[in-house]
Design a protein that fits this description.
Chain lengths: 166, 423
């Protein structure tokens, strides 16, 4: 998996999946849904986020619903990684299943909005270019490494089905 | 000598085909039952099955319910429901419930869960099924795709957090008040843990009230919630026309099982609880909110519109009326609940008080169906989430409460304590 370098968008604790994928847009296209991603938290996020940017958040990022559109909206907008003190359990699984690296980052509070971060998801290394601080964090769990490196659950299922190991 | 194990360890070991499992271990479990809903079910899974060129692993282990987009209100929702029907037909899914109610409630009404089962659902409130002494947890549609293809899923064996309640509730205080109290007290981040509810208060609860506790294990951020099987569990299965297995009552934690923590609470002095905007954890005793005027009172969702909930509402509304300037919307959780409420007079009491009956389904709880909120409106709701924008406009404010408290508030036109009306 390639290293990631992107600007940080900084959020607080308990950012929920309703905020990432509002129910009002469930029947809309992903373009439309993504335009409203996180608007109740930061009205400018969906407009200003750029492909390759990184989300840095506090505790329990992705608490709430099982809606996979929460993780999909982030990948649709080009978010390259989510670094949080901790994650809601279903969001965490969804993110990795879509190949979106989600890393627990206890020192998330040291990051300022707009800082450029270099992230190595597999090794579990986060570097803040502004402060030159380097953090070792838990990487992708070993049992999910092959799936995440394949690009997520769908590419991984294709590999498994081709080997007829399902 | 065998170690003592929690119920969760026993179920996961059985599903993983291992003699025993320990917290932290990653295991692959065979799925006994998979619940798919119209929201994250066929519409999201079928295109992926086509892309993979495969079918479903076992149509007899799938339960499919249309509940989120019911009834169709526009071309998009009609197409979603149509595709869900085609999926059921194409793959020969016999247990397909089309506009019969909310999936989590139907599983109970139909007696499809049993102690010791390992079940998964494509919705976070799938934890509700744990009231039957089984392990049932929620997952995203992408992961449910994997289940539908392979019949298995990975689980990191969670710790078990035991939550004991003793004592008797005051009249007008119910399981929902416990759930909201726990969101504040234990917080919404109990990841890597299963919440095992027990104690005298829980033992005395109906299966429907236990389901409120396990439902809102989702708000507590737990892997899932469960209640050990007992005679109440078996009676619920028999009512649904099932014969409980001979070993059903063996699915319990060992007496000296190792819990990560044990919490003991008393229900005796628990006042009705309110969760103020914008989080279920932002909760406190009802008295702190009695100046909050409300536009809409909403009885709905898996957690808050079962027959037991409708009866609470009728108890409060008997010989009373909904306040002028406030609307009370009631979306029964299933057609069976609706039928029984009609037969025993519950429904007549509710409508005579001025309530407005909505279609059965998930409705306004997640802003998908009838009853969504306008900007700046204030709602008191028997549902389980009140995040910003959850039930409609971003500036709408949602207070969560029990069906008793929602009904009392509808009568008062402001947040009100049901104990004052139930003397």
């Amino acid at each position: 998996m390639k290293a990631i370098e992107g600007r940080a968008w900084v959020f607080g604790d308990n950012i929920n999946t309703d905020a990432m994928a509002p129910g009002l847009y469930f029947k809309s296209s992903m373009d439309e849904m993504a335009r409203h991603c996180l608007e109740t938290v930061d009205p400018h996020f969906a407009r200003d986020v750029r492909p390759g940017d990184v989300i840095v958040a506090g505790r329990n990022f992705g608490v709430g619903s099982a809606r996979e559109q929460a993780a999909m909206a982030l990948t649709h907008l080009g978010v390259a990684a989510v670094l949080a003190v901790s994650f809601g359990r279903i969001f965490y699984r969804n993110a990795l299943n879509f190949g979106l690296p989600a890393l627990t980052f206890p020192n998330a509070a040291t990051v300022r909005a707009g800082d450029v971060l270099r992230v190595q998801p597999v090794a579990g290394r986060i570097e803040n270019v502004r402060t030159a601080a380097v953090f070792a964090v838990p990487g992708i769990p070993a049992h999910l490494m092959a799936m995440v490196e394949a690009g997520g659950l769908m590419p991984w299922l294709k590999v498994r089905l081709a080997k007829d190991t399902v | 000598m065998p170690l003592p194990y929690t119920l969760t360890q026993k179920i996961l070991a059985r599903a993983a085909g291992r003699p025993h499992v320990s917290p932290g271990e990653i295991v692959t479990c065979r799925v006994d039952l998979a619940l798919l809903l119209d929201s994250g079910g066929p519409r999201r899974i079928w295109p992926r099955l086509k892309e993979l060129g495969v079918g479903v692993w076992d149509p007899d282990r799938i339960v499919l319910c249309s509940d989120h987009f019911t009834p169709a209100v526009d071309a998009e929702s009609a197409a979603i429901l149509q595709l869900t029907r085609e999926f059921a037909r194409h793959f020969g899914i016999q247990r397909f419930f089309d506009m019969r109610g909310i999936g989590h409630v139907l599983l109970a009404e139909q007696g499809l869960l049993a102690p010791g089962m390992f079940a998964v659902g494509g919705d976070s409130h799938s934890s509700m099924g744990g009231a039957f002494g089984c392990f049932m947890a929620g997952f995203g549609a992408i992961e449910m795709t994997g289940v539908v293809v392979t019949g298995e899923i990975w689980i990191q064996v969670p710790e078990t957090l035991r939550v004991n309640w003793s004592g008797r509730f005051a009249r007008g205080v119910v399981a929902k008040d416990i759930a909201l109290f726990l969101c504040r007290t234990l917080g919404m981040e109990n990841g890597a843990s299963v919440l095992e509810y027990g104690g005298e208060t829980v033992r005395n609860m109906s299966i429907w009230e236990r389901m409120v506790l396990t439902n809102m294990a989702a708000e507590l951020g737990a892997e899932t919630g469960l209640v050990e099987a007992d005679e109440v569990t078996l009676a619920a299965l028999r009512t649904a026309g099932r014969v409980p297995a001979a070993d059903a009552l063996d699915w319990r934690s060992d007496p000296d099982a190792s819990y990560s923590a044990i919490h003991d609470f008393s229900a005796t002095d628990l006042p009705p609880q309110i969760a103020a905007p914008d989080s279920p954890a932002n909760s406190g005793p009802v008295g702190a909110y009695d100046t909050v005027r409300i536009d809409q009172a909403y009885i709905g969702a898996c957690v808050g519109a079962k027959l037991s909930d409708l009866r609470m509402v009728a108890e409060v509304l008997k010989n009373r009326s909904v306040a002028r300037g406030t609307r009370l919307l009631v979306a029964p959780a299933s057609t069976q609940a609706m039928t029984e409420a009609a037969a025993d007079g519950t429904l007549a009491t509710i409508t005579a008080a001025g309530a407005y009956i909505l279609p059965t389904g998930c409705g306004a709880c997640a802003a998908l169906g009838a009853g969504v909120l306008a900007e700046n409106e204030v709602c008191i709701s028997s549902t389980n989430r009140n995040f910003r924008g959850r039930m409609g406009a971003n500036s709408a404010q949602v207070y969560l409460a029990s069906p008793y408290t929602v009904a009392a508030s509808a009568v008062a036109g402001r947040v009100a304590d049901p104990r004052e009306l139930l003397t």
